[in-house]
Write a structure and sequence with these properties.
mainly alpha, 11 helices, 66% helix, 183 residues, single chain
């Protein structure tokens, strides 16, 4: 693992905030975002264990690696990613290999294709963290991020609607409300 290189995520700012006018000094870093995603994922997974079998260790691993490719490719905005998802997924997998994390390629593929409950939970946590950060910026007067917040809320609503009763869909809604996401 190339830890020296990966640790540079502490200095990579999330481009969506910068594009929307958040000053560089206040912009969330990829490492900060990843930390929040991991905390949200851990919390949700621990709570979900009350009604469904879920591998919390796997959730944490996926959470921690989900944005590591950005140290190689930068933080690519959602609009670009959505135009060529398969191509972008392949680029992420190449970056994971380049960083000496080839043993985690399967987890990245799992996340990108949302193949498991664990991957689905991390995807939900990723958007939850973005939504919460956006609402924090709104509270401090950064109105220019409103579009990101609104679009992320729409995405979250769609993701949550795919959670079945067997996957504790209603519990997920309650837990998100506790975190400050009212869909």
């Amino acid at each position: 693992m190339n830890l020296d290189r990966i640790s540079n995520l502490k200095y990579v700012v999330r481009s969506g905030w910068i594009i929307r006018g958040v000053p560089n000094a206040l912009a969330e870093t990829v490492a900060g975002h990843t930390f929040e995603v991991a905390l949200i994922s851990m919390y949700l997974a621990d709570e979900l264990r009350r009604c469904v079998e879920i591998d919390v260790e796997k959730v944490l691993k996926i959470s921690l690696i989900h944005d590591i490719p950005e140290v190689v490719i930068g933080d690519v905005v959602k609009l670009v990613k959505s135009r060529a998802p398969e191509l972008f997924s392949n680029i992420e997998l190449e970056a994971i290999n380049e960083l000496g994390l080839s043993s985690y390629v399967n987890l990245m593929e799992e996340l990108n294709k949302e193949l498991t409950l664990e991957a689905k939970l991390v995807k939900l946590s990723d958007f939850t963290a973005t939504y919460l950060q956006g609402t924090r910026y709104l509270k401090t007067g950064h109105e220019e991020v409103r579009e990101i917040v609104e679009n992320t809320k729409i995405t979250l609503s769609k993701l949550v609607s795919t959670w079945t009763p067997e996957e504790c869909g209603e519990l997920i809604r309650k837990l998100l409300r506790k975190l400050g996401v009212d869909l």
